[in-house]
From TrEMBL:
<dbReference type="InterPro" id="IPR046342">
    <property type="entry name" value="CBS_dom_sf"/>
</dbReference>
<feature type="domain" description="CBS">
    <location>
        <begin position="285"/>
        <end position="344"/>
    </location>
</feature>
<dbReference type="InterPro" id="IPR050511">
    <property type="entry name" value="AMPK_gamma/SDS23_families"/>
</dbReference>
<keyword id="KW-0129">CBS domain</keyword>
<feature type="region of interest" description="Disordered">
    <location>
        <begin position="248"/>
        <end position="276"/>
    </location>
</feature>
<feature type="compositionally biased region" description="Low complexity">
    <location>
        <begin position="249"/>
        <end position="274"/>
    </location>
</feature>
<keyword id="KW-0677">Repeat</keyword>
<protein>
    <recommendedName>
        <fullName>CBS domain-containing protein</fullName>
    </recommendedName>
</protein>
<dbReference type="InterPro" id="IPR000644">
    <property type="entry name" value="CBS_dom"/>
</dbReference>
Length: 350
C-alpha cells in the first residue's frame, strides 16, 4: 500500500494537464486583458522577490517532497512536461508546438502547473487506501484552524484591504461576521476579481455588509451604486468618481432594494436559526459572497469533496448556531495525509 503511493512522482499528477502559456518579462499587465492605463507595469511587478509561492521542481520529485514544499508555503509547483519521444520524433513535435502553440514553449520546453487542489484530488482518487482516516471528523483530526481572517458586518469595507491581501497569499478569504460571531458571508480575492476594477470605489465607501450586497446580487443593485457615487462626492474623490462607470446591463434587476431588503446579519439563516444550506452550497458564480460551510463533525472526505466541488482551497467551519469555529484548508488536510504516508512507510519497512 505504502509502496504504491510513495512510488508516485509529481510527473504522474501532470498527466492530462495542459501546458502553461508563456509571457515575456517585458509584457505588460495590460496584456492580461485589462484596459486600465495603470496596468501597464511589466508583469515582473507582480512577482515578489525571493517568493516561495511558486516553486520549480523536477518531474521525478516525490509526492512527499511536493507536499513538504506546499506545507512550507508553496501555492503552485511548476513541473517540466516530460515527452516520451526522442530524436527526429521529438524535433517534429517541437516544430509542431512552435507553429501551433508557440506561447506554451519556454527555452524549448513545456511546463505544467500543479496546485494544492491537484494533490488533494490525487488523494481523493486513492482515498480507500487511507481507511479509516477519511471517515474521521475534522474535529477529531485536529485540522480546524482557529486563526482566520474576519471583519465585522457593520465595519468599513476598507478596513478589510489588508486582510484581503493576506487571504490572497493564504488562498482563503475574509469572513464577514456579526456582533455574535455568526458567519454572514465572505469576501475573497476571486470574488473581487470577478467584479472588475470599479469594486475599488465600493470598498472605499461601503460597509462590509453593503459590499456583500454589491457583489452578491448578480450585479451591483442600482440603489447601492447610487450610494457609492454619493459617498465619493461627499469625500471629494472626484477622480475615483470619474472612473466609477458601470455598464447599465451589469446592474442587478433588483434595482430598488429597500433597507429591509438589503442582506442583513440574519439573512443567511433560516427561521430555525441554521445556516441556509441551499444558498451556502450554491454555485459560486451565482452567489459569489456566500460562504461554503461545514461542521466540526463533518468527515474529512466530505470536506474534501465539498471544497473540490466548489473550486475553493478552504471550507468554513460553523456551529449549529452559525457562529464561526474556524477554517479548514487544503494545507491542513495535506498535513494529515503526509503524517499518514509516513506512518504507512514506516510500517512497510518494519
Amino acid at each position: 500500500m505504502a509502496a504504491h503511493l510513495l512510488a508516485h512522482e509529481v510527473a504522474d499528477l501532470c498527466l492530462g494537464k495542459p501546458p502553461l502559456r508563456s509571457l515575456s518579462v517585458s509584457a505588460t499587465i495590460e496584456n492580461v486583458n485589462s484596459p486600465s492605463l495603470a496596468l501597464k507595469s511589466p508583469v515582473t511587478a507582480l512577482l515578489p522577490k525571493d517568493s516561495v509561492l511558486v516553486r520549480h521542481v523536477q518531474p521525478s520529485t516525490s509526492l512527499l517532497e511536493a507536499i513538504d514544499l506546499i506545507l512550507q508555503g508553496a501555492q503552485n509547483l511548476v513541473v517540466p512536461i516530460e515527452t516520451r519521444f526522442s530524436g527526429s520524433s521529438r524535433r517534429k513535435l517541437l516544430q509542431k508546438s512552435s507553429s501551433t502553440r508557440g506561447c506554451t514553449l519556454h527555452n524549448g520546453r513545456e511546463f505544467c502547473w500543479l496546485t494544492q487542489e491537484d494533490v488533494i484530488r490525487y488523494f481523493l482518487s486513492s482515498i480507500g487506501l487511507f481507511s479509516p482516516l477519511p471517515t474521521a471528523s475534522i474535529d477529531a483530526l485536529g485540522i480546524i484552524s482557529t486563526e482566520f481572517l474576519s471583519i465585522g458586518y457593520h465595519s468599513s469595507a476598507s478596513l478589510a484591504t489588508e486582510a484581503i491581501s493576506r487571504s490572497l497569499v493564504d488562498q482563503t478569504s475574509v469572513a464577514i461576521v456579526d456582533e455574535d460571531g455568526v458567519l454572514i458571508g465572505e469576501i475573497s480575492p476571486f470574488t473581487l476579481a470577478c467584479c472588475g476594477e470599479t469594486v475599488a470605489a465600493a470598498i472605499t465607501t461601503l460597509t462590509a455588509g453593503e459590499l456583500l450586497a454589491y457583489i452578491d446580487c448578480g450585479g451591483p443593485p442600482e440603489d447601492i451604486v447610487r450610494v457609492v457615487k454619493e459617498r465619493l462626492k461627499e469625500r471629494n474623490l472626484e477622480g475615483m468618481l470619474e472612473e466609477f462607470e458601470i455598464d447599465p446591463s451589469d446592474i442587478s434587476s433588483n434595482s430598488s432594494l429597500s433597507d429591509e431588503e438589503l442582506p442583513s446579519p440574519t439573512s443567511s439563516r433560516s427561521s430555525g436559526g441554521r445556516y441556509n444550506k441551499s444558498s451556502s452550497y450554491s454555485a459560486r458564480m451565482v452567489r459569489r459572497a456566500e460562504a461554503i460551510v461545514c461542521y466540526p463533525g463533518s468527515s474529512l472526505v466530505a470536506v474534501m469533496v465539498q471544497a473540490i466541488a466548489h473550486r475553493v482551497n478552504y471550507v468554513w467551519v460553523i456551529e449549529e448556531d452559525c457562529s464561526v469555529v474556524g477554517i479548514v484548508t487544503f494545507a491542513n488536510m495535506l498535513e494529515v495525509f503526509r503524517d499518514q504516508l509516513e506512518a504507512m512507510m514506516l510500517g512497510h519497512f518494519d
